[in-house]
Design brief:
Layout lengths: L3 E3 L6 E3 L2 E3 L9 H13 L4 E3 L8 H13 L6 E6 L14 H15 L4 E7 L7 H14 L2 E7 L3 H14 L6 E5 L7 H4 L1 H7 L2 E5 L24 H4 L1 H4 L4 H16 L4 H10 L6 E4 L4 H7 L9 H10 L29
Parallel strand pairs: 3-4, 3-10, 4-5, 5-6, 6-7, 7-8, 8-9, 9-10
Antiparallel strand pairs: 1-2
C-alpha cells in the first residue's frame, strides 16, 4: 500500500504517490496502460493525473475504460488539466469561459464519469482575464462537474493572484499546484515553497526522475548521441532539460545510491517524499516493470547523512537543469552558461 495524505488544507485524501498518465495512448499501448492502472489501484495508488491534451484525449479515454473495468469510481481520485490546444479553432485552447466549459464536458465524456476530482489550469493564460477563469471554475464546482481545482506550473506571484482573486470575489479557492521538482531543479524551494506553506496548497511534483537522468539512463549529454528510442531523443522539450553538468551530477547521484545499496529511481522519488512541501510525487511509468520498480519508494526512509550528501551534490534552492523552459513565459533563477549540446 502506498499510504495516504490530505491534499493541502483541503479535505481531499489522496495516495502518497500520484500516477501520471501522460504515456498512456502514446508510448504505452491501451491494453498495457489499463493493466498498469489496475495494478496501481490494487497497490493502493488511487490518485491519477492526466491532461486533456495528452495523446489528444486518448489518455483520458484509457483512464475511463480502466475505471469502468475496476468498477469503483468513487474510490479513485481523478485529476486532469485544461488549457492546451484541442482543436483547429482560436477558441479551442486557453482558459476562457467558452473553452473551459467545452473542455470539461469533453473530458467528462472521455473519462466516462460525472465529475472530475481535481481540475487544473495547465499553465497560465495571460490573454484571458483571471476573473473570468475563476468564475468559471467556481461555477463548475457548484454544478458538481468538478470537486476541486488547482494550478500547474504557475509562478509564485501567479499562484498568489489566483488565491487572492478567488478569495476577494467569494469564489471557491484553489487547493494545489503541480510543479516541476526534482533533485536537479530545486528552485521551487526558494520562490514558491513559502507560498505553499502559508496558504495550505498541496504540491504535486512532476518529473521526479529528472526525465530519467536520476535513474542513470544517460551517461553523456551529447544530443547527437542519445539512446535510440528514448524519450529525450524523441522530444525537444526533454532535451532542453538535459545538459552535460546535469548528466554528470546525475551519474554521481547514481553512484552514491549504489554505494548505499539503494535503487536510484526509488531514492529520487523517496527524496521528494522527505520534502515537507510535497503532497505526492507524480510517477509516470511507461511499462508495468517501471511501476513495480518504483512503488517501494514509499517505504524508503533515507538517513539524514545520506540526504546531506544529496544536498552536497545539488544544494537546496539551486538547479543544474532547467525543468521550466520552454513550458512557461516566466522564469526564475535563470541558468546561464549551461551547455546542452556537449
Amino acid at each position: 500500500m502506498t499510504g495516504t495524505i490530505k491534499l493541502g488544507a483541503s479535505g481531499l485524501i489522496v495516495s502518497r504517490l500520484c500516477l501520471g498518465c501522460m504515456n498512456f495512448g502514446e508510448a504505452t499501448p491501451e491494453d498495457e496502460s489499463i493493466e498498469i492502472l489496475k495494478s496501481a489501484y490494487e497497490a493502493g495508488l488511487f490518485f491519477w493525473v492526466t491532461a486533456d491534451r495528452y495523446a489528444n484525449g486518448v489518455s483520458e479515454q484509457i483512464i475511463g475504460k480502466a475505471i469502468r473495468q475496476i468498477g469503483d469510481r468513487d474510490q479513485i481520485v481523478v485529476a486532469t488539466k485544461v488549457r492546451g490546444k484541442m482543436g483547429p479553432g482560436p477558441n479551442d485552447q486557453g482558459l476562457s469561459r467558452r473553452h473551459i466549459i467545452q473542455a470539461v464536458d469533453a473530458s467528462l465524456r472521455r473519462l466516462q464519469t460525472e465529475y472530475i476530482d481535481l481540475y487544473q489550469m495547465h499553465r497560465p493564460d495571460e490573454k484571458t482575464p483571471l476573473e473570468e477563469t475563476l468564475e468559471t471554475f467556481d461555477s463548475l464546482v457548484k454544478a458538481g462537474k468538478i470537486r476541486y481545482y488547482g494550478t500547474s506550473t504557475f509562478a509564485s506571484w501567479q499562484m498568489a493572484d489566483v488565491e487572492w482573486t478567488a478569495k476577494s470575489l467569494g469564489f471557491v479557492r484553489p487547493i494545489s499546484e503541480e510543479a516541476a521538482y526534482n533533485i536537479l531543479d530545486r528552485r521551487i524551494e526558494n520562490d514558491r515553497a513559502g507560498f505553499l506553506r502559508k496558504f495550505g496548497w498541496g504540491l504535486l511534483a512532476w518529473s521526479p526522475l529528472g526525465g530519467g537522468q536520476l535513474a542513470g539512463r544517460y551517461t553523456k549529454a551529447n544530443l547527437t548521441d542519445l539512446p535510440q528510442g528514448s524519450r529525450v531523443s524523441l522530444n525537444s522539450h526533454f532535451q532542453q532539460r538535459m545538459n552535460k553538468e546535469s548528466v554528470l551530477i546525475s551519474n554521481k547521484f547514481v553512484g552514491l545510491c549504489q554505494d548505499a545499496s539503494y535503487n536510484p529511481a526509488q531514492v529520487a522519488v523517496a527524496w521528494l517524499l522527505h520534502q515537507p512541501i510535497v503532497t505526492a510525487p507524480i510517477i509516470g511509468p511507461r511499462t508495468m516493470d517501471h511501476l513495480k520498480s518504483i512503488l517501494p519508494a514509499v517505504d524508503l526512509n533515507l538517513p539524514v547523512d545520506f540526504l546531506a550528501k544529496i544536498d552536497e551534490l545539488i544544494p537546496p534552492g539551486t538547479a543544474i537543469a532547467d525543468f521550466l523552459s520552454p513550458n512557461v513565459s516566466w522564469q526564475i533563477g535563470h541558468l546561464p552558461g549551461i551547455d546542452r549540446t556537449s
